[in-house]
Amino acid sequence: MMPRNIKATKMWLTALVFVVAITIVTAWISRPDKNKKYSHLQPNYRYGCRDHTPKSLLAKDNNGGDGAVPYVISRGDGSKGGGGLPMPGQKYSSYDHQGDGSEVLGEVLRRPKVSADMPLGRPSWFRVPSPSLMKDSRYNEVKNSLEDLNLNTVCEEAQCPNIGECWSGGTGTIMLLGDTCTRGCMFCAVKTDSKPPPPDPFEPFKTAEAVAKWGVNYIVLTSVDRDDIPDGGAQHFANTVELMKHKKEELLVECLVSDFKGDLKSVETLANSGLDVYAHNIETVERLQKFVRDPKAGYQQSLSTLAHAKKIKPGLYTKTSIMLGLGETEKEVLQTMKDLRSVGVDVVTFGQYLRPTEHHLSVVEYVKPKIFDYYRKKGEAMGFKYVASGPMVRSSYKAGEFYLEHMITTNRSLQNEKEIDNIIMT
Question: Model's pTM, two decimal places?
Answer without folding.
Answer: 0.72
